Amino acid sequence: MRSLTSLVEDDDTRFGELEPILRRLPSYKKLSDSMSLEWPVNNKLWGLPGVKSMLVDLELGHEAVVRLCRFGYLGRQGGLPVGKRLRFVATSEAFCKPLRRFQQCTCAEHAPLNAVDWSSTGFYNAELSGALNRASKACASAAVSA
Description:
By secondary structure, the protein is α+β, with helices and mostly antiparallel strands. The protein has one domain. The protein has helices spanning 13-29, 49-57, 93-99, 126-145; strands spanning 36-40, 62-67, 85-90. The chain has a three-stranded antiparallel sheet, covered by helices on one side. The longest helix has 20 residues, at 126-145. It is globular. It starts with 12 loop residues before the first helix and ends with a helix.
């Protein structure tokens, strides 16, 4: 695998910390019929050559983008919805298809960046967990019928 950190500034250690995890993904694929990966849409990792290569090698060719506002995530000030988007890639179209219904947003306004507790958006709430569970069940059903 090519360097995963080639496009990242030298002082950004977050990407270096993730590299060992990313390198283990091929071994995870051997353990199951399908797999998925999720990061925020704007995460710099998506653009790294090693990550792009890994997505192809692991056949993570199906995609769904979901908006956290659709799952009830709210900012601190005024309780406005959080506009953060997550990108899921998977080996199974059956996993991504039910998630795509959460791609569009009808919010008139989102919480300003300084009004969001970003660490809390790193956890799946009950609504997002339920959607992922349903997507996993759809994926399992598709695998059984294939």
